[in-house]
Design brief:
globular; 343 residues
Length: 343
């Protein structure tokens, strides 16, 4: 079966969006609008797998939507909405809870990382959320998902759930007159020179809002002066930049900053090294700071403007939910028939 080329991606509204979220995900959303139908979701249902203050959740949800728009996602060309407005996400997730296996969930490394030694006391939602993630994607029969390295395992699970549904209900799928591959086997989109952005203080750790040092990350709401200061204070080693990309091996901080420059300038690391190879940090850091300010500061200003206009942001989310619901209900109407639910 030929599926409509469709991209789905979601970002969790956990507050304090940073450079890693932008370069690893949001920036890549924009050009996909030229080649695919695009659905971009603020996954607020995923956010409550750990307790969230309701006011903080509302604020963070609007912040993510504002980041989408400020980065260049067009809410008229693409669908932007928050997950909880489309109830079919939860409905399909339950079906997939009954398709997925406990062993599949228990092998998810992100669950292990988040639960740690306290796995008996975390929420059931935290354990089962990859099933909801699969529902997010397959509810729209998305053919492609832009993912970072740390999300590839979850997409593999989505593919396994789609294949198992297609297989387990093969007879019913045929009886109801559908093609055998009812759900697509979604493909990852992994592209760009910096899909994983590391801490500005420690190049071996991923950039994260949970890092106690604010200097470890660039927030998407940082002003120009703050962005420049954080870049100039970023941890480096005493050696100049290498003459070749291979020279970045074993130099985590250097590799990270070169990757950030490459991603912000739409170049490769090879291009960046060709320009700055052999030069010291006194030359490279100011150039990176200037580039980061040029790219990020206007977006931060637009985000702040949009966040202050909650009526407009809520209207975008509501419009997206109305459009997305049409696709979601069409899928669920067929799923209900396939699994045997009487309506």
């Amino acid at each position: 079966m030929a599926f409509t080329p469709r991209v789905f991606s979601g970002i969790q509204p956990s507050g304090d969006l940073h450079l890693g979220n932008y370069l690893g995900a949001i920036r890549r959303f924009v050009p996909l609008q030229d080649t695919h139908d695009c659905i971009y979701c603020v996954v607020d249902m995923h956010a409550i797998t750990v307790w969230q203050d309701p006011d903080d959740l509302r604020r963070a949800t609007r912040e993510v939507a504002a980041a989408f728009i400020a980065a260049g996602v067009d809410p008229k060309r693409s669908i932007i909405f928050n997950q909880s407005q489309i109830v079919q996400h939860a409905e399909l997730a339950w079906v997939f809870n009954c398709i997925a296996r406990m062993g599949w969930m228990s092998r998810m490394t992100q669950f292990k990382d988040k639960a740690g030694k306290n796995s008996e006391n975390v929420s059931l939602g935290l354990f089962a959320y990859p099933s909801l993630m699969a529902a997010d994607i397959l509810l729209y029969k998305a053919t492609h998902v832009p993912v970072g390295d740390d999300q590839k395992q979850h997409l593999e699970l989505t593919r396994d759930i789609a294949a198992k549904f297609n297989n387990d209900y093969a007879a019913s799928v045929a009886k109801e007159g559908f093609e055998p591959d009812f759900f697509p086997i979604t493909e990852p989109l992994i592209a760009g020179p910096a899909t994983r952005i590391m801490s500005l203080r420690d190049g071996t750790k991923k950039m994260s809002k949970s890092d106690p040092s604010d200097q470890s990350r660039i927030s998407l709401l940082d002003d120009a002066d703050t962005i420049a200061k954080k870049i100039k204070r970023a941890t480096t080693d005493p050696e100049p930049l290498p003459e070749t990309v291979d020279g970045l091996k074993g130099r985590a901080e250097a590799d990270n900053l070169v990757g950030i420059y490459a991603a912000l300038s739409d170049k490769t690391k090879v291009d960046v090294i060709a320009e700055f190879g052999g030069k010291g940090w006194g030359a490279f850091k100011p150039a990176l700071a200037e580039l980061a300010v040029t790219v990020l500061a206007p977006m931060a200003n637009e985000m702040r403007r949009l966040i202050d206009d909650t009526t407009a942001i809520d209207a975008v989310l509501r419009d997206g939910a109305e459009r997305g619901s049409v696709i979601a209900e069409a899928t669920m109407k067929d799923v209900r028939r396939i699994v045997g639910f009487i309506r």
